[in-house]
Automatic annotation (TrEMBL):
Superkingdom of the source species: Bacteria
InterPro entries for this protein: MFS_trans_sf
Chloroplast as UniProt keyword: no
Name of this chain's protein: Cytochrome d oxidase subunit II
Keyword list, A-Z: Membrane, Transmembrane, Transmembrane helix
Ranges that cross the membrane: 7-27, 33-53, 112-135, 155-178, 198-217, 237-258
Length: 267
């Protein structure tokens, strides 16, 4: 029945992607994401149906009962140990990872935390450059330099700078917290702060930061200060591109948390 459960997890993962694809496609004005959401509905449903059909067949021919009895026999022959509930929808445990050498797990956890923190910092740098340079240049076109654009912007540029500064500080705080999560040690940290959990948390945090980025990236008052003839399409392309990155991070978080990646041996 384990393969059946894994099929169900993958089908559920695809279905969980649907709202993020649909909302992202609607908010960013990207029809491709709306089509992807529609395809994900049918694909996820088909995988779940396959999982249900396989489970029913295994129950009807007795193989599911054999699996249960084999599991019970294995537990009866194993040394007595406290039972640990590991069946959960989010973050399924991997026994091999839990039994790995503590030093190797500590190194993997710290590497994942450092990589995730650097990834968030890179996200912050990219977002700041797009909001502070690419979007103002796109709106102004070739008629004004970046310095002249900020001069025309006036008081709106101050509001923009404050918003972008708050967002950048939030990026650094979240990145530092992720890095510290990999440095923490102890039974709770070793149990909860696995490398995959850290990377998934970084993906969720990155998606949230992308959503917050849209406040300063709206460039308040700039289009009105520049007057007619602003290149709104070019600026929207930059916003959509960065927003698409946020949708990708949401999908990555689902893939990292719901399905089980360990390969099953089919019996």
């Amino acid at each position: 029945m384990r393969l059946t459960a894994d099929l169900f997890r993958w089908g559920l993962s695809v279905l969980l992607m649907v709202p993020f694809l649909a909302i992202g496609g609607w908010a960013l004005g990207l029809p491709a994401l709306l089509w992807a959401a529609l395809i994900a509905v049918f694909l996820g449903g088909a995988v779940n149906v396959a999982a249900v059909v396989r489970g029913i067949r295994r129950v009807s021919d007795g193989r599911a009962v054999d699996d249960i009895l084999r599991s019970v026999d294995g537990q009866a022959n194993a040394p007595a140990e406290p039972l640990d509930v590991r069946q959960r929808l989010i973050f399924p445990d991997e026994p091999d990872a839990l039994d790995a050498d503590p030093d190797d797990r500590r190194l993997a956890r710290r590497t994942a935390a450092l990589g995730s923190a650097l990834g968030l910092v890179a996200l912050g740098v990219a977002g700041a450059l797009i909001a502070a340079v690419a979007i103002p240049r796109a709106l102004a076109g070739d008629g004004l330099t970046l310095t002249q654009t900020y001069g025309v912007w006036g008081g709106g540029s101050v509001l923009f700078a404050v918003g972008l500064g708050i967002w950048s500080i939030a990026v650094l705080v979240v990145a530092a917290a992720l890095w510290l999560s990999g440095r923490a040690d102890g039974p709770v940290a070793r149990r909860l702060a696995s490398p995959r959990r850290i990377v998934a948390l970084a993906a969720v945090a990155g998606a949230a930061l992308v959503v917050g980025w849209f406040a300063p990236a709206a460039a308040p008052g700039l289009a009105g200060a520049l007057g007619p003839g602003v290149a709104l399409g070019d600026a929207d392309a930059w916003r959509s591109g960065f927003g698409l990155l946020g949708v990708g991070l949401c999908l990555a978080a689902i893939v990292l948390t719901v399905p089980r990646w360990k390969r099953r041996v089919r019996r």
